[in-house]
Fold:
Amino acid sequence: MNRLQLALIATSTAVITACGGSDDGVMVTPPVVVVPPVTAEVPPSASATEAGLFAYLDALFKANADALEPVDLSTFSPSLSDTTEPMAIG
Structure:
């Protein structure tokens, strides 16, 4: 082979390698889910049932709520039942 053919082969190989193929698939990034802090508002479930209130208080405890903003309690109206048994804590 002469030098011209070797140069042509090397150049062709470099060009083909540089193409890298095609990615026709669109890369989808997962949506960013912004979770508000547990102290943003009292959820309606906390006012609806005792179990909902307990779940919310548990979330407050786990979130180190002392470092977060105060909670607006204007929408909070806990349900009081005379017929249900007290929940066991622990």
